[in-house]
């Protein structure tokens, strides 16, 4: 204890000692100073420890000074030991030793001391040392933490203008601002020559970071989407950011991938269409058998059969109710095929890869029922017939409330040079478009959770049927009503046989890169756990009201982002629980992701809360 008291007395004669200040404040004090400018401060993290901050080539270096318990001496790393930190500073003012620059200019009051004969003491004031105490300054946090904190405050306040400032490297800061349920970011730079702050691309300068923030809080600024109105709370009772430490992909793996693809893809892009017609289902390893898997499969299947089909959704009266109660007892014609005169085609309601989708009516068992008609004609029939019929062959095996069912087929060989696929009708269109139409009004979270629970339920059924969807996204979820959705578009789907646990494509196809798991991008490998990754991205789409994942990023940039262990940011206003589930879906290794049957009760719990 006496030792600590004597050290404190020594500091009274050391003007460059600044006491308990943060490394951010030390950086602000030294930024713009000459090489070798330095200060000494008390460590905030370790007892009986100090830190030496030194200006060097526009940056601020920080060295930890710790007391070695064996020799009772202060030292930097394995350097020479000294009785006090002041003696250590005096030593490195004579010889830089292991430091990158010799201590030249102590930042503090002018004084006469044992160090004065070898350095030029300067009196330099700190122009802006107060911003760290402001609620809006959040220090050196990550971009993911930034988005998460703003999301939590937006969820609570539901207003524009929520903002925070965080520190970046090399004299830059980030101003993050919520506008229209999105986080927008502006880069703030500190000019070390003029010693002013300004937003990059703007002309107006400020002598302090606090002055910049105060200005944009008072005025509707030119160039910013809205004024800074509410500071994001720095210290709150929000749950900790759930962002996990995702492992980085080995650089050589991603480099090998880029080298492998560079001959078949444009520079800086994976957004190309490859020929998917020659994909081959290669030999795969045996599917593991387990009691848990068999039980989960049985639980999913036991809830659904042909008789339960009309009860598609609570409060929804299925137009196919009478068909299921007919004498034939089936929703489709006996052999699935019907003649052209049984189908009436109306206006176009969409267009897909193989042709148009029209509103229509289909006569089955003597009754005309609303339907959607996917049509191809002319040369398209011969070119794509096999692919489309393969999609039908998968869909006709599926019978689930949250999956679009195939009702009938008009084959070109039976009814002219035309091919029509008759499907259940989802009159409100795709989920992504529905969400984007409601971005301003913000649907209740209960409704969003209802959508994703239904999608998860349908995907659990697909998994139980050994079907890998491979194209799950909000655009491929169709709206039957405002509270009832169905999974559609099985053009890329594959059925895994009992001896297989994954499908492997021979080469890339027209793939939705933004929704694909790393193993699919790297190794062309597709499993139910890959669908879980896609479900996580779909979940992100729903809670961001139809935003495009990885906005403004090319395919290679997405790969680099995933390689670095980063993931999509928390959508603004999204619940911490929902974002936690997204991150679980985006675990790098497939076996670390939850199954759809495991996700279902977690989503239901969020809805019940």
Topology:
Layout: H1 2-11, H2 23-30, E1 37-42, E2 49-56, E3 59-68, E4 73-76, H3 85-94, E5 105-106, H4 143-157, E6 162-167, E7 172-179, E8 182-191, E9 196-199, H5 209-218, E10 230-231, H6 251-261, H7 291-302, H8 321-324, E11 343-351, E12 356-364, E13 367-377, H9 379-395, E14 406-410, E15 418-423, H10 431-437, H11 445-464, E16 467-468, E17 477-481, E18 484-487, E19 494-495, E20 503-504, H12 518-523, E21 525-526, H13 528-543, H14 555-563, H15 576-585, H16 596-608
Parallel strand pairs: 1-5, 6-10
Antiparallel strand pairs: 1-2, 2-3, 3-4, 6-7, 7-8, 8-9, 11-12, 12-13, 13-15, 14-15, 16-19, 17-18, 20-21
Compute the number of strand runs: 21
By CATH, the topology of the largest domain is: Transferase(Phosphotransferase), domain 1
Largest sheet: 5 strands, mixed
**What is the CA-atom radius of gyration, in angstroms?**
32 Å
Beta content comes to: 15-25%
Which structural class is indicated by helix and strand composition?
A: alpha+beta
CATH class of the largest domain reads Mainly Alpha
How confident is the prediction overall: mean pLDDT? 77
Question: How many structural domains can be distinguished in the coordinates?
Answer: 4
Low-pLDDT stretches are 1-7, 109-127, 249-315, 325-333
CATH superfamily of the largest domain: Transferase(Phosphotransferase) domain 1
N-to-C span: 53 Å
- CATH architecture heading of the largest domain: Orthogonal Bundle
**Order of neighbouring strands in the sheet with most strands:** 4-3-2-1-5
């Amino acid at each position: 204890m006496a030792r600590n008291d004597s050290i404190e007395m020594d500091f009274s004669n050391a003007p460059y000692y600044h006491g308990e200040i943060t490394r951010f404040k030390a950086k602000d004090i030294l930024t713009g100073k000459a090489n070798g400018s330095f200060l000494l401060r008390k460590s905030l993290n370790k007892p009986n420890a100090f830190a030496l901050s030194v200006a060097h080539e526009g940056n601020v270096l920080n060295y930890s000074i710790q007391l070695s318990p064996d020799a009772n001496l202060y030292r930097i790393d394995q350097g020479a030991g000294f009785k006090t930190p002041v003696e250590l500073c005096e030593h490195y003012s004579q010889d830089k030793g292991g430091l990158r620059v010799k201590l030249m200019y102590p930042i503090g009051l002018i004084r006469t001391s044992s160090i004065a004969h070898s350095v030029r003491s300067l009196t330099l004031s700190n122009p802006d040392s107060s911003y760290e105490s402001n609620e809006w300054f959040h220090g050196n946090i990550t971009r993911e933490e930034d988005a998460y904190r703003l999301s939590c405050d937006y969820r609570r306040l539901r207003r524009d203008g929520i903002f925070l400032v965080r520190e970046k490297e090399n004299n830059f800061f980030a101003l993050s601002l919520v506008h229209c349920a999105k986080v927008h970011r502006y880069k703030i730079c500190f000019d070390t020559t003029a010693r002013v702050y300004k937003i990059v691309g703007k002309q107006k300068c400020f002598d302090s970071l606090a002055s910049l923030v105060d200005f944009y809080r008072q005025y509707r600024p030119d160039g910013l989407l809205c004024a800074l109105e509410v500071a994001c709370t720095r210290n709150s009772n929000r749950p900790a950011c759930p962002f996990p430490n995702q492992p980085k992909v080995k650089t050589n793996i991603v480099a090998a991938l880029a080298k492998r693809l560079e001959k078949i893809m444009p520079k800086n892009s994976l957004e190309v269409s490859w020929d998917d017609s020659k994909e081959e289902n290669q030999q795969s390893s045996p599917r593991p058998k387990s009691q848990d898997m068999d039980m989960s499969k049985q639980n999913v299947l036991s809830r659904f059969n042909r008789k339960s089909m009309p009860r598609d959704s609570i409060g929804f009266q299925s137009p196919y109710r009478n068909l299921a109660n007919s004498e034939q007892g089936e929703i489709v014609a006996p052999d699935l095929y019907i003649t052209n005169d049984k189908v009436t085609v109306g206006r176009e309601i969409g267009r897909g890869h193989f042709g148009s989708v029209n509103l229509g009516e289909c006569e089955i068992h003597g009754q005309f029922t609303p339907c959607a008609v996917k049509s191809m004609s002319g040369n398209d029939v011969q070119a794509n017939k096999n692919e489309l019929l393969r999609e039908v062959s998968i869909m006709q095996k599926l019978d689930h409330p949250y999956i679009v069912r195939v009702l009938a087929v008009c084959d070109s060989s039976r009814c002219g040079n035309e091919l029509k696929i008759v499907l259940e009708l989802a009159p409100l269109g795709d989920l992504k478009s529905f969400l984007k139409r409601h971005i301003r009004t913000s649907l209740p979270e209960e409704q969003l959770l209802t959508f994703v629970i239904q999608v998860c339920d349908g995907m659990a059924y697909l998994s139980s049927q050994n079907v890998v969807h491979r194209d799950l996204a909000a655009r491929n979820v169709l709206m039957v009503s405002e509270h009832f959705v169905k999974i559609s578009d099985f053009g890329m789907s594959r059925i895994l046989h009992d001896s297989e646990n994954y499908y492997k494509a021979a080469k890339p196809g027209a793939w939705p890169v933004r929704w694909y798991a790393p193993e699919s991008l790297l190794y062309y490998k597709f499993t139910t756990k890959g669908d879980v990754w896609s479900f996580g991205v779909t979940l992100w789409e729903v809670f961001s009201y139809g935003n495009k994942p990885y906005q403004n990023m090319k395919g290679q940039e997405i790969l680099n982002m995933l390689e670095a262990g980063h993931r999509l940011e928390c959508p603004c206003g999204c619940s911490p629980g929902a974002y936690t589930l997204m991150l679980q879906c985006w675990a790098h290794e497939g076996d670390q992701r939850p199954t759809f049957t495991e996700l279902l009760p977690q989503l239901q719990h969020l809805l019940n809360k």
